[in-house]
C-alpha cells in the first residue's frame, strides 16, 4: 500500500505506540529480553546493509503522507546558493588574505572549491540513484551499513543544530552592530548569576530561528520561492561588489602574490573551505525533486561551479582594491569601500550578510528536518518524527525537534562557546561518501570474487593510509619533496589497483567521471582538511559519538533489529509493490 493510500489518522496523535511500536519495547520484560540479546543483535546490524528499494519505497510508509514533488533544477540551484553563500565569505576572506595567503587567497578559494566540487559529484550520483530524504544517511546505510550511517548522521545533525544556533546568535550580533556598533550585545539580557558564556540571553536569536523554521515548515515550494527572491537580491549586491572592486583595481596591490609561500595558500584553503559547506543539506531535497536524474546534477554541480567562480572573483576584487597588508580582518569589504570613499556601501555588505544568514537558516531547516525524518523512518529514533503533514507536505514533527533544540542552545550559549564545539563530521561524511562510491562501483557482497575483494580493500586502505601520511608530513612541518613524492606514488598505486578491477555497478543516468581517480582524490583532500582541525574538534567528536553509541546500544539497535526482522514475506511484498 502506497503512502497516499494509508488510512487517514490524526497527525498530532501521541501515544507510546507512536513513539516505540517495536516488540522490544512492548513492556519491561520484552525490553529486558532484548538487552540480553544485544551482542547477536549488534552483530546483525553491523553486517547488514539496507537496499535502495527499502530506502525509497518501504521506509516512506512510515511518513503516512507523501512529500510534495515540487522542486526543479532552478529551485535546487538557488537553494544551494542561499545555503552556501552566507556571512562567511565577508569574514573569512579578509582574515586569511591579511595573515596567511595574501593576494593568493584566490588560489585558496579555487583549491577549496575544487575539493567541494569533488564531494558534490559524489553526492549527486547518490542523490540521482537513491533520491531519498535522508541524503548521506541513506547513501551510507545502503553501502556501509546501519551503524556507520547512524553515527555519521547523528553527528552531522548535532553539528547542524549547533550551527543553526550559531547563525541565530550571529544574526543577532550583526543586526545589533548595525544599530549600535559600539555594543553588539545591547539587545541581549545579561544574567550575572549564570556562568560566563551562558549569561547573555538572546531572545532575538530565538525569534529569528522560529521565523526561519516556521517558513520551512509551511511548505517547501514557498521556502524555495522566498529563498530565490532573497538570493537574487544577494547576487546583484555581490555583482556590485565585484564590479566596483575591478573599477578600483590596482595590479600593484597583488605584489608580492605569495607573501607566505605555498604554505599560506594551503593553510587558508583549509579555512575558507567552510565557506563552501551547506550544499549537503540541499541533497536531502531529492525526494521532493520532480526529475532527480536531470534536476539534481544541474542544480548541485551547476550552483557549486558558479559559487566557486563568484568566491574567486570576490577575493580578487578585494585584494586588487586594497593592499593585503591594509585589509581589515574584521570587516574587510566594509573598510575597503570606506577607503575608496564609499562609506554607504558598507550597509550593502551588512544587508548581504544578514540575508545570507537568513537563507542559510531556512535551507538548513529544510535539510535538518529531512535528515531527521529519514532517521526516524528507519526507527533509529521514534517514528513519530517521520510523519509528513498532509496539508503542508513537510515533516513538521522532525523540523520542530531541530528547531526547539537550536533555539534552546541559541538562547543561552555565546558564539565563543558554540565555535569551540565545531565538528569534524562534515569532512568525515564527505570522505565516507567517496569511500561508499568506490564500494558501490567495485564491491558487491557474494558477487565480487575473493581475489578482487582482497585487492579492492587493500587498495582502499592504501589510498586512505597514504592520504593520512601526506597530512601527517604537512602537519609535522616537513616541507621536503621526497616524503610527498613517496606518499603520492603509494596513493597512485592504490588508485590504479582499484581502476584495474571490474566495475559491478555503473550509474544508470548520471555518474561521477574518472572513477576511481576523482573519488580517491576526494578522500585525500578531505583527510588533509581533517588534519587542519585542532584536537578540540576530535575530542568533541569522540565524546558525542560515545553518547550516541550508548543510545544506539540501548534503543537504536533493538528498534532497527525488530523492523528488519518483521515478517519476511510481508517485507518482500511491500518492496515488490
Automatic annotation (TrEMBL):
Presence of keyword NAD: no
Single GO MF annotation: amino acid transmembrane transporter activity
Subcellular location as annotated: Membrane
Domain Cationic amino acid transporter C-terminal: start-end pairs: 510-559
Bilayer-spanning residue ranges: 70-92, 104-126, 147-168, 228-249, 264-286, 298-319, 331-354, 396-415, 421-442, 454-475, 481-502, 509-531, 537-561
GO cellular component: plasma membrane
Keyword Nucleus tagged: no
Pfam family membership, one: AA_permease_2
Lipid bilayer topology: Multi-pass membrane protein
InterPro entries in the record: AA/rel_permease1 (IPR002293), CAT_C (IPR029485)
PANTHER family referenced in this protein's UniProt entry, alphabetically: CATIONIC AMINO ACID TRANSPORTER 8, VACUOLAR (PTHR43243:SF62), INNER MEMBRANE TRANSPORTER YGJI-RELATED (PTHR43243)
Family under the similarity heading: Belongs to the amino acid-polyamine-organocation (APC) superfamily. Cationic amino acid transporter (CAT) (TC 2.A.3.3) family.
Record-given protein name: Cationic amino acid transporter C-terminal domain-containing protein
Organism: Populus tomentosa
Amino acid at each position: 500500500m502506497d503512502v497516499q493510500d494509508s488510512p487517514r489518522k490524526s497527525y498530532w496523535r501521541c501515544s507510546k505506540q507512536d513513539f516505540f511500536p517495536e516488540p522490544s519495547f512492548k513492556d519491561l520484560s520484552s525490553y529486558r529480553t532484548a538487552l540480553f540479546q544485544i551482542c547477536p543483535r549488534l552483530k546483525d546490524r553491523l553486517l547488514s546493509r539496507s537496499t535502495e528499494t527499502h530506502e525509497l519505497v518501504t521506509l516512506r510508509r512510515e511518513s503516512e503522507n507523501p512529500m510534495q514533488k515540487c522542486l526543479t533544477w532552478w529551485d535546487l540551484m538557488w537553494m544551494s546558493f542561499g545555503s552556501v553563500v552566507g556571512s562567511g565569505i565577508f569574514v573569512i576572506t579578509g582574515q586569511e588574505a591579511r595573515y596567511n595567503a595574501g593576494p593568493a587567497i584566490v588560489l585558496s578559494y579555487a583549491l577549496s572549491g575544487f575539493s567541494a566540487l569533488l564531494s558534490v559529484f559524489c553526492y549527486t550520483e547518490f542523490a540521482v540513484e537513491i533520491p531519498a530524504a535522508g541524503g548521506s544517511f541513506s547513501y551510507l546505510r545502503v553501502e556501509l551499513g546501519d551503524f556507520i550511517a547512524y553515527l555519521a548522521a547523528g553527528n552531522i545533525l548535532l553539528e547542524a543544530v549547533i550551527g543553526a544556533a550559531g547563525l541565530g546568535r550571529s544574526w543577532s550580533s550583526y543586526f545589533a552592530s548595525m544599530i549600535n556598533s559600539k555594543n553588539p550585545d545591547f539587545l541581549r539580557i545579561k544574567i550575572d548569576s549564570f556562568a560566563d558564556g551562558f549569561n547573555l540571553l538572546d531572545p532575538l536569536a530565538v525569534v529569528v530561528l522560529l521565523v526561519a523554521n516556521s517558513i520551512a515548515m509551511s511548505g517547501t515550494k514557498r521556502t524555495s520561492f522566498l529563498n530565490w527572491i532573497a538570493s537574487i537580491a544577494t547576487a546583484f549586491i555581490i555583482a556590485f561588489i565585484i564590479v566596483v572592486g575591478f573599477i578600483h583595481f590596482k595590479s600593484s596591490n597583488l605584489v608580492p602574490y605569495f607573501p607566505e609561500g605555498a604554505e599560506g595558500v594551503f593553510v587558508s584553503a583549509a579555512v575558507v573551505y567552510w565557506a563552501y559547506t551547506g550544499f549537503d543539506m540541499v541533497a536531502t531535497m531529492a525526494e521532493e525533486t520532480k526529475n532527480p536524474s536531470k534536476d539534481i546534477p544541474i542544480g548541485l554541480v551547476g550552483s557549486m561551479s558558479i559559487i566557486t567562480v563568484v568566491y574567486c572573483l570576490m577575493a580578487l576584487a578585494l585584494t586588487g582594491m586594497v593592499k593585503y597588508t591594509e585589509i581589515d580582518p574584521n570587516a574587510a569589504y566594509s573598510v575597503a569601500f570606506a577607503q575608496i570613499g564609499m562609506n554607504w556601501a558598507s550597509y550593502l555588505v551588512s544587508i548581504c550578510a544578514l540575508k545570507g544568514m537568513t537563507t542559510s537558516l531556512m535551507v538548513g531547516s529544510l535539510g535538518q528536518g529531512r535528515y531527521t525524518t529519514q532517521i526516524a523512518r528507519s526507527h533509529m529514533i521514534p517514528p513519530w518524527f517521520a510523519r509528513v503533514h498532509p496539508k503542508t507536505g513537510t515533516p513538521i514533527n522532525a523540523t520542530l525537534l531541530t528547531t526547539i533544540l537550536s533555539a534552546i542552545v541559541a538562547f543561552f550559549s555565546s558564539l565563543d562557546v558554540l565555535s569551540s564545539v565545531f565538528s569534524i563530521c562534515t569532512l568525515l561524511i564527505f570522505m565516507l561518501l567517496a569511500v561508499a562510491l568506490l564500494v558501490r562501483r567495485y564491491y558487491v557482497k557474494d558477487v565480487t570474487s575473493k581475489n578482487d575483494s582482497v585487492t579492492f580493500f587493500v587498495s582502499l586502505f592504501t589510498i586512505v593510509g597514504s592520504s593520512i601520511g601526506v597530512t601527517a608530513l604537512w602537519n609535522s612541518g616537513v616541507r621536503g619533496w621526497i616524503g610527498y613524492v613517496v606518499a603520492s606514488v603509494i596513493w597512485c598505486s592504490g588508485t590504479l589497483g582499484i581502476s584495474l578491477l571490474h566495475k559491478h555497478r555503473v550509474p544508470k543516468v548520471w555518474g561521477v567521471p574518472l572513477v576511481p581517480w576523482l573519488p580517491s582524490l576526494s578522500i585525500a583532500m578531505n583527510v588533509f582538511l581533517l588534519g587542519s582541525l585542532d584536537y578540540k574538534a576530535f575530542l568533541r567528536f569522540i565524546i558525542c559519538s560515545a553518547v550516541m553509541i550508548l543510545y544506539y546500544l540501548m534503543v537504536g539497535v533493538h528498534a532497527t533489529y525488530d523492523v528488519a526482522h518483521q515478517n519476511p514475506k510481508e517485507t518482500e511484498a511491500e518492496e515488490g509493490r
